[in-house]
Please model this.
Amino acid sequence: MTLETKLLGVTLKNPVLMASGTFGFGEEYAGYLDVSRLGGICSKGLTLHPREGNYGPRMWETPAGMLNSVGLQNPGVEHFIRHELPGMRGLGPAIIANLGGGTIEEYVEGARLLNSAGIDILELNISCPNVKEGGANFGLKPAIATQVVSAVRKVFSGPMLVKLSPGAENIVEMAKACRQAGADGLSLINTLLGMAIDVEQRKPVFRNIAAGLSGPAVRPVALRMVYDVVRAVDCPVVGLGGIATWRDAVEFLLAGAAAVQVGTAVFQNPEAPLEIIDGLQRYMERHGFEHISDIRLKK
Model:
């Protein structure tokens, strides 16, 4: 009976990955849980050049999750390769580098640098605003997403996930377009857009007004989108969005996900991913599954 999972040719100890932007580069959580037990870690979102992120409030708790407006604060791809990546290698889980960008050229150069860095998987975050097109999200229209995915595919030879935005005009058509453009697999969903208003200050909490909503509130939306995409594409799908317990993870696996990512849950309970791993093991034992992939429903 094993939780061992194959994802895009990479062997994972189990199908539980840490979502980008919630786990730093892994070492930050080493004092809170046994990081070596995780299946993989998605790095903090990277961009070609360092970013300071957004000013003002960056996080706001909601009744069933949180809003964030961090703004992709990160040290840049080259700094990551020199300083953070060696530490990630020493932790044990598979290394998934999450890459964003403001232009196609930035995506391409970042991917080129990561291509020879020794990461296990590239996760292409297409939920970034395209600065050359007035700030429109790369991941909203299939035609625009196809451009960035195909451009990165030309310079990155390793396994590549494309992380989809729930704000896409049609999530299934977006998935098909990214797959056709060269994605080896897909991860979804990224955060939903929301906002908060400070009733005492009588103004929006965030300087950018809108912020990313994550946590249990988005899980039913994410689950439905994963279910639909799994049945529309012929590649592995990684499910994420509000996964906080082993039951949540089982739902996504039953929907057809090859693996899951845990994010916001660790802010409330750092042990959540390990509890999910243990819960998956017990679920398999109760139901007589020999391999974790046996859980998945047939299309």
Q: What stands out?
A: The chain has a mean pLDDT of 95.
